[in-house]
Amino acid sequence: xxxxxxxxxxxxxRQGDDLAELVAASASLEHGDVVVVAQKVVSKAEGRxxxxxxxxxxxxxxxxxxxxxxxxxxxxxxxxxxRVVRERAPLVIAETRHGFVCASAGIDHSNTADPDTxxxxxxxxxxxxxxxxxxxxxxxxxxxxxxVSDSFGRPFRQGTTDVALxxxxxxxxxxxxxxxxxxxxxxxxxxxxxxxxIAAAANLVRRGKDDGLPVVVVRGLEFGGDGxxxxxxxxxxxxxxR
Length: 242
Hints:
- The protein is α+β, with helices and mostly antiparallel strands.
- It has 2 domains: 1-48 and 122-233, CATH 3.30.1330.100; 49-120, CofE-like fold (Alpha-Beta Complex).
- Helices cover 23% and strands 26% of the residues.
- The chain contains 6 helices and 12 strands.
- The chain has helices at residues 19-26, 39-45, 59-65, 71-79, 125-140, 194-202, and strands spanning 3-6, 34-38, 49-51, 81-88, 91-96, 101-103, 117-119, 145-154, 157-168, 174-175, 191-192, 215-219.
- A 5-stranded mixed sheet has the order 1-12-2-8-9. A 3-stranded antiparallel sheet has the order 4-5-6, with helices on one face. A two-stranded antiparallel ribbon has the order 3-7.
- Helix 3 (59-65) packs across helix 4 (71-79).
- The radius of gyration is 19 Å and the shape is globular.
- The termini are far apart.
């Protein structure tokens, strides 16, 4: 049986906080658990919070803001962007330095301590997941997997769903190619984004932006191995939508 368990009682996370210590103190972890942590608290702990007044908007940022959004926020987005994929001012769909394609380069201003601040994605979410996993092993004495998750929109589908930005301690992409279906026919293209499925499942116990539940434990899964969320990024040569 799979259980999805919200971790309650966590304090407001701030720069420099030991996230592993906070989680270990609030959660009763077991060997084999998957700890799903919202990207926002990881970014806060790692100091990926910036003030709007640190940005001088460029002409491009002013153009994209279109008088409907603070151009300083658009400047922050452009600085976190490797490539603008689509734009309909003031909306920007960007490819980040990590290879993620998402709205606003993953930058968010909800649940910030100061309304004039923005939260950026971690510099290396996979490294963040590895550090948190090692910290939980040291503090709780258990082997767990860790997923750093965030809410993304999807082409051709309404609504957002959580996906894995960082992974440690499990195989994020299960390759079923070469296995047979029930008729004995070989599967040719099937790969299952297990880490994304776990991230989305964990989000079911979060009620909204104000629920204060940045950490969820998913228990009862039997996915081993190891890998990175970078494996989930579609290679450019296979991407039919670029």
